[in-house]
Each structure stands twice: as structure tokens, then as C-alpha cells.
């Protein structure tokens, strides 16, 4: 999730249905801890238990969790990160509120750190090399938390070492890159703020956004393999995905000094920002500025690569009826500095939710139908490493047994409304949960009704409904949806977009992302945190406890119909190259018919007393539908992306991504036969996936 301005250049990212219940890898011995209440194959969601969980989720406890989690910097693999591993284990092994079991898994992964002996430096020098101006090496210590020994200096992870010297790319070529966060992008679309943290939520001028510049996700040296000691590793000199040139982030106060003195032609309008001056392109500094026209910007980067051991922490509640079906709920643990918002708002919610469920479990009053796996991922900030290594290590097991993945990373960006991203089948369960819970504040609205005021769309099936966004690769859901094809979602509270155009909360990835920042400005009283905990907790229980999985396959029909309608705009040129959309039209119609018939079968079964095997078969069809959209050969140029509906789309037409991308490239190539052959291949891949999805939804006896 990198959002930066660039200064001086640019950097050139159907299984066999089970017939019985097999105890899975994450299940535990039957005799461990409290026995389950009397379980039966017909166990269904208990609304009283659900209400109890929602009522017991405590905003003050979430607040105290956040205070503890964010009191010290906890960069991945540092001592404080490992101390939080022990904190999670302690909570999940508590005799009164713990889970059935808790354990860690460790991976040896390649990370990137700045040198402790040679700080990275950005300076303006004259023709003799004398330093005329130096950018800050660290952020201003405004609250006593920015100057500690464990605060990592600003750097761009995985940027190579080097000492380029130039003023801009146009004259000298791209030798190095400076990045900064422009105030226009984060301070409500305004220029320089009048007040900044600790007096407002705006970013102080010295604030620097850290981040990873590795192109892919997962450990850089072990793609598609878990980073265990025995795994084959690439040589770091030959591994792909690293930036080719040095990069260094700076604060906007330093960027202002450089940009406002740059000469040359005026930069395009969409390059202009909020530093209070015109942004020019160079070359050289302007004649009436504070630097000589032939002054140079010297960038010294001394980052180093290191193999480090990083831990995931797993907390498990064994299912009473289907212990081999897993509902996963996760967030990463590591941060760039204190990480109060990112990621600790999510971990604070996770700990409170697991406490409430663990207390019911230890009392013997509840055990879920399916197993619940809570996860705290390591080294996410470097490229979703912990979650990706987990999906690589347990690839087959998770594809066969994982029902859904719930991600709650930053749980509160702001306190206006719920924001959910996910695959279409999760829409119905999220809506059901949101309708049950009151929104924070005095409006008297449910979270659902409040949500629809801020973000909505017109559905051809349901009318006006809240908008559910799509999943990219900004957090740990990425390997679950793109690599494994597991129905996934990301849940948070966010902004009123009519009042701010900020791309994200202003102190993102800086040393000013602290507990007080959350407590004073993002969510005083922690009612939005509580709302997220209640919504995510309700979704979790509905997925783990419902007799029939609350996933609506027909909600995919709207997406497919939308993609098909967009593809119709390509018909004329496609037919000129002998490519017909007919098979795609037929495949979409077959899916729609199969989904409708499937929902009718579920409704019929719900009217009676279904046989447990019938329930199991239906649920496996619901679980496996998302997998049918995977094709490992669809995007050979991409790493881990195999979902033919949600892979990155670079083409301008909002249709199936592979088709859109191939069409855009072929159109630009003119009559190149190979380019149009790729369009035909991508169209065939989509048709095959849709046909497979429809087949998965038909009665299992229909081969």
C-alpha cells in the first residue's frame, strides 16, 4: 500500500467432496480443556450466544489492548515483536479466557534494514562537494516517542545501497529516487496544515512514510515454497522484484526545500501538490533560489539484506461438529514504528474478540460447529510475508478445508462508517451482521443503515445496498484469495469521503502513529473499534456456527453480468480478429442458472430436516466455488495471482482482468497475430472457469 510522490525519477507488482468428517491439522485431542456442550450434526447458529458475544465486547478493553500493543516500536523480528508473540501466546493459553491451543510457526525470511553504522543521507552539494543542505535523518521528537533507540530511521525497505548524485531524471537518467508524502494527499486535500500532531490529526512536516518496495508478496528468496530451513533459496543477487536503484523517503518539510527551488519547465497539473509553490521538472535549481543552479542532490543509501526468523502465532478453537473446516481470522502484528493504527487497532480488536469467545469456551457454554483459527502474522510490512508463507506451507490443507478468511488489519481509519472489501459471496453474511448492530453515536441507525448513507450502489437484485469493495493486495487477505481461492474479506471503519480526500490517515507508517493519536483524534472512546469488533465477531460466528454456510453464490452473478456487459464493448474489434463472445455469454448464463438452482435446493433443505451428509455436500460446494476461478497458468507474468476474476487489471475496460489486459495490449500492437491469440487464450480461460464454477454448483451426483 504505497502512496508516494516521486522526486527526481521513477522506479522502472474442484476438489473431491468429503463424505465424512476428518479431524484436521488444527484440531486438538477431544479430551483437551473444556468439553463441548452436547453437539449434534444439526448444530446451528445460536442467536443468544451471538447476542452475548456482541454485548460482551468491551471498548475499554480494546483501548487497553491498544495501549499495550503500541507502547514500544515493534518492527518485524525485533525483541519487542517477539515479546508480542509471547503476549499473544499468554492470552490464548489463559486458563479462564484462552483457546483450545496456541502455537507459533517460524520462518527464515529475507528482510531489509538500514545500516546502524552508516545512516542514509540526502543532501544538496555544490560543485566542490560541500554540503549546502541536509535532510533530516529522523523525525522531530514531538511527544518523546519519536527519538527512542528502537525507532527505525526512515528508509525504503529492499532499496539497494548506492550513492547517486543528480538533480532530475530528464538530464541525468534515473540514478536514484526520493519519495515523500505530499500534504495535499493526506491533509484533507489542503496544502500545508495550520496545526499538526500532537495538536491535530495532520502529519507533522518531519513525518516520513516508511514502506517496502519489494514488487511481490512473500519471502523474496522462496517463491511458492515455505521459508523453512530446508527449502531451496534463490541467490539474493538473482532474485527478482527488488528496486534497481537507491530510494530514500523524506519528510515534506525537506521536500519543500528541494521542490520549491527546482528550475526548468512547470510540471503537469496533476503533479502539483500542497507545498505552497509551483513544482518544476528541472534540470537544475532555479536561478533565484537558495541553491546554485549547478547544485546537486546527493543520496546515500546503506540498506542491507538480512535473513531473520519471523513468527506467526496461531490460536485454535476446535469445532464440535466439523473440526476439519476452518474459519480463519487474522491480522499482522509487526509495524514500522509504534504502529498504533497500523496494525495494532486490528490486533486490539482480535484480542478482545478471542477473549470473549475463549471465556465462553472455558465455561463450557459454547463451542463452534467449525474450527476457528485466529492468526497473528509476522513481517507483513515487508510484503505480506507471514501470511504468504503460511499459505505456502499448508497449501493443500487450506484449499481442502478453509471456509473463509476474515482480515481485520487497520480496524479504524476514521470513525464515520463501516468499510468492507471482499468477494461477492461474503456480501450477504456481512449485511446480516451489520443490520444487527447499532452504529456508534446517537443516530439510532444500525451499522448497515449508517453504511448505506456513505457508500452505496444500486443492485439489480436488491435495490440500494452498501458498496462492498474488491480485494487488491494491500493486506494479508491477498494470498488467501489470489493464491488459494478462499472467500475473503477485510473489515474496518473509515472516513466520510464527503469531508476529506485524504488517501489514508496522515501519520501512516510514521513515528507519529501512536496510541495518543488514536485516542485523541481517530476514535475517542473507542466506539468505532467496538463496532468493528461486533461486526467482525458476528460474521465470524455466522460462518463458524451456521448449519448452512451463509455464503450466497448468486451474488457472483451480478459481478459476472457486469464484466460481460463491459466485454460487449469489445465485440466489434474482437470479431474482426475472429474472436467470438458467444461462449462467454453462454458460460455466464449457465452459471446464473446453476446458482439459482443451487439456492433453491438449499431453501428446500432448510424447510425440512436435512441429512447431515446433504448439509456437508452443500457446504463443500459453497466452500469450493471460489477455487473454481483459479488458473495457475492464466497470468504467468504475475506471482501468486491465479484468480481469473480478481487478478490485477491494467486494461482500461472493466471486464475480466485477463481479457481486459490482453485486449489492451493487442489493440496497441495492431494486427500482431500473437497478441490477438493471447486475447483468445484469456477468453478461453474465463469460459473454462465459469463452466467449472457452474459444474461445481450442480448436484454432486451430476458428473
UniProtKB/TrEMBL annotation:
Residues 579-698 form the Transferrin receptor-like dimerisation domain. InterPro entries: PA_dom_sf, Peptidase_M28, Peptidase_M28B, TFR-like_dimer_dom, TFR-like_dimer_dom_sf. The chain crosses the membrane at residues 7-28. Gene3D superfamilies: 3.50.30.30, Transferrin receptor-like, dimerisation domain (1.20.930.40), Zn peptidases (3.40.630.10). The keyword Transferase does not apply. It is found in: Apical cell membrane. Residues 312-520 form the Peptidase M28 domain. Its cofactor is Zn(2+). Belongs to the peptidase M28 family. M28B subfamily. This is Aminopeptidase NAALADL1. The gene is NAALADL1.
Amino acid at each position: 500500500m504505497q502512496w508516494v510522490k516521486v522526486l527526481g525519477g521513477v522506479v522502472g507488482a474442484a476438489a473431491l467432496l468429503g463424505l465424512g468428517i476428518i479431524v484436521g491439522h488444527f484440531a486438538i485431542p477431544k479430551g483437551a480443556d473444556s468439553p463441548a456442550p452436547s453437539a449434534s450434526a444439526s448444530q446451528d447458529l445460536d442467536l443468544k450466544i451471538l447476542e452475548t458475544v456482541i454485548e460482551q465486547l468491551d471498548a475499554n478493553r480494546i483501548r487497553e489492548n491498544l495501549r499495550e500493543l503500541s507502547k514500544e516500536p515493534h518492527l518485524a523480528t525485533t525483541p519487542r515483536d517477539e515479546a508480542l508473540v509471547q503476549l499473544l501466546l499468554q492470552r490464548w493459553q489463559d486458563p479462564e479466557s484462552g483457546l483450545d491451543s496456541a502455537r507459533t510457526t517460524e520462518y527464515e525470511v529475507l528482510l531489509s534494514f538500514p545500516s546502524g553504522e552508516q545512516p542514509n543521507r540526502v543532501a544538496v552539494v555544490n560543485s566542490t562537494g560541500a554540503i549546502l543542505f541536509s535532510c533530516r535523518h529522523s523525525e522531530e521528537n514531538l511527544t518523546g516517542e519519536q527519538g527512542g533507540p528502537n525507532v527505525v530511521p526512515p528508509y525504503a525497505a529492499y532499496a539497494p545501497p548506492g550513492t547517486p548524485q543528480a538533480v532530475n531524471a530528464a538530464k541525468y537518467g534515473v540514478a536514484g529516487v526520493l519519495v515523500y508524502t505530499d500534504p495535499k494527499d493526506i491533509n484533507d486535500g489542503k496544502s500545508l496544515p495550520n496545526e499538526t500532531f500532537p495538536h491535530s490529526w495532520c502529519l507533522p512536516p518531519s513525518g516520513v512514510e516508511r514502506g517496502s518496495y519489494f514488487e511481490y508478496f512473500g519471502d523474496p528468496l522462496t517463491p511458492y515454497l515455505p521459508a523453512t530451513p530446508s527449502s531451496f533459496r534463490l541467490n539474493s543477487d538473482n532474485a527478482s522484484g527488488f528496486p534497481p536503484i537507491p530510494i530514500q523517503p523524506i519528510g515534506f518539510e525537506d521536500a519543500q526545500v528541494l521542490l520549491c527551488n527546482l528550475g526548468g519547465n512547470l510540471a503537469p497539473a496533476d503533479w502539483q501538490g500542497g507545498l505552497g509553490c509551483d513544482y518544476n521538472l528541472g534540470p537544475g535549481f532555479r536561478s533565484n533560489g537558495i541553491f546554485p543552479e549547478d547544485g546537486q542532490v546527493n543520496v546515500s543509501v546503506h540498506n542491507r539484506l538480512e535473513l531473520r526468523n519471523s513468527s506467526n502465532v496461531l490460536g485454535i478453537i476446535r469445532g464440535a461438529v466439523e473440526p476439519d473446516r476452518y474459519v480463519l481470522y487474522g491480522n499482522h502484528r509487526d509495524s514500522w514504528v509504534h504502529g498504533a493504527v497500523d496494525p495494532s487497532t486490528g490486533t486490539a480488536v482480535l484480542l478482545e474478540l478471542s477473549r470473549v469467545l475463549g471465556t465462553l469456551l472455558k465455561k463450557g457454554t459454547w463451542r463452534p460447529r467449525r474450527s476457528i483459527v485466529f492468526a497473528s502474522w509476522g513481517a507483513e510490512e515487508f510484503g505480506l510475508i507471514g501470511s504468504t508463507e503460511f499459505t505456502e506451507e499448508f497449501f493443500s490443507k487450506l484449499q481442502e478445508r478453509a471456509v473463509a478468511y476474515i482480515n481485520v488489519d487497520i480496524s479504524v481509519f476514521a470513525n464515520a462508517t463501516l468499510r468492507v472489501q471482499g468477494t461477492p459471496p461474503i456480501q450477504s453474511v456481512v449485511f446480516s451482521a451489520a443490520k444487527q448492530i447499532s452504529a456508534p453515536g446517537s443516530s439510532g441507525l444500525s451499522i448497515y443503515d449508517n453504511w448505506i448513507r456513505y457508500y452505496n450502489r444500486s443492485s439489480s437484485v436488491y435495490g440500494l445496498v452498501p458498496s462492498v469493495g474488491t480485494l487488491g493486495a494491500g493486506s494479508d487477505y491477498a494470498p488467501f484469495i489470489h493464491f488459494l481461492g478462499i472467500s475473503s474479506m477485510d473489515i474496518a471503519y473509515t472516513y466520510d469521503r464527503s469531508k476529506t480526500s485524504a488517501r489514508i490517515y496522515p501519520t501512516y507508517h510514521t513515528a507519529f502513529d501512536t496510541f495518543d493519536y488514536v485516542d485523541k483524534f481517530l476514535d475517542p472512546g473507542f466506539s468505532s473499534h467496538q463496532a468493528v469488533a461486533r461486526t467482525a465477531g458476528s460474521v465470524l460466528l455466522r460462518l463458524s456456527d451456521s448449519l448452512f454456510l451463509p455464503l450466497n453464490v448468486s451474488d457472483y452473478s451480478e459481478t459476472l453480468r457486469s464484466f460481460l456487459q463491459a466485454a460487449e464493448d469489445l465485440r466489434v474489434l474482437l470479431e474482426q480478429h475472429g474472436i467470438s463472445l458467444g461462449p462467454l455469454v453462454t458460460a455466464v448464463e449457465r452459471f446464473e442458472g446453476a446458482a439459482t438452482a443451487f439456492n433453491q435446493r438449499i431453501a428446500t433443505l432448510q424447510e425440512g430436516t436435512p441429512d447431515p451428509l446433504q448439509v456437508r455436500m452443500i457446504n463443500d460446494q459453497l466452500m469450493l466455488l471460489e477455487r473454481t476461478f483459479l488458473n495457475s497458468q492464466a497470468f504467468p507474468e504475475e506471482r501468486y495471482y491465479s484468480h481469473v476474476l480478481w487478478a490485477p487489471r491494467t486494461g482500461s475496460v472493466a471486464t475480466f482482468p485477463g481479457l481486459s489486459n490482453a485486449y489492451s495490449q493487442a489493440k496497441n500492437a495492431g494486427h500482431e497475430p500473437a497478441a490477438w491469440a493471447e486475447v483468445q487464450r484469456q477468453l478461453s480461460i474465463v469460459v473454462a472457469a465459469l463452466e467449472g464454477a457452474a459444474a461445481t454448483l450442480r448436484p454432486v451426483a451430476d458428473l
